[in-house]
Amino acid sequence: MKKIFCFLFLYKIAILAAIAQQDPQFSFNRMTQLTVNPGYAGNDGFINGLILNRYQWVGIEGAPKTLVFSIEAASNLFGLSSGIGMNVISDELGFQMNISVSFDYAYRKKTGIGDIGIGTSVGFYNMAVNGVGRWHFPEGELWNSSDTGFPQGEASQLAFDIGFGVFIKSKDYFFGTSVTHLNQASIILEDEARTFLARHYYLAAGYNISLSDPLFELQPSVYFKTDMAAYQTDVTVDLVYKKRFKAGLNYRINDAICILLGFEMNNGLKIGYAYDLTTSALSGYSGGSHELYLSYSFDLGKNRNKKYKSVRYL
User: Fold this and answer.
1) What is the CATH number of the domain that holds 176?
2) Given its phi and psi angles, is residue 62 left (phi above 0), alpha (psi -120 to 50 degrees) or beta?
3) Which pTM was predicted?
């Protein structure tokens, strides 16, 4: 029964994912801002690269697995203060595999409330499904392969994808708002399997609080996303020591409590690990979720060993 429950749950998610919450979730949502907000590109004046792996609901067959590669940098493209970036995301869930590639551009301007980036992303989103061979259940009351509404074999389609975002950063706080899948591209896998990329709306905000001991800093933040059908909110509090060591707690409402750890080595190399303790109905079936990242920041032509101030330092 445990295996059947997991199958039915993930099967339902895979179908709903065609029209809702298609974007993957991350516990390190500060580190993955570029994947949803092109206005983030070039916000700290450095060249930043990120590789992140997320293994969600470990122990459940067909659970989500997500791989992210992103890079962004400050630029003077077109003679303007700008930021440029690129994201490659692979997201697997059950019999569905989504791969997206996007290129970001942000116009940047210093203002009285902070540095503002207004950006757009353009790219491609490929949705692929394999309706056979993934699940091995006999046909009957619980499972009838003729009623899936999904292709019975392999099918995929590539769609053009557009996003937009604004990101504001000052010494003490940041704020971002963005929308992905702005054009709501249609995807037709077969005549009876039509879907579209639903718009996802994001809000992110955080503040840096200096403590009485100058070696420590508190960084509370909130991250909200919705596709106007479902909603998700993360509330995070990070404690930073010497601007290099970070430990935090993230509460994803009605879903998980996450423990986050991060460390910045010399010369801009950063590593981080997050463990999600599931609090939803899946808690009895999953061993939680794991997230790992490796990132590198550098400034060409300058001394990388000097300290810098950034809302994303780890």
Assistant:
1) 2.40.160.40
2) left
3) 0.84
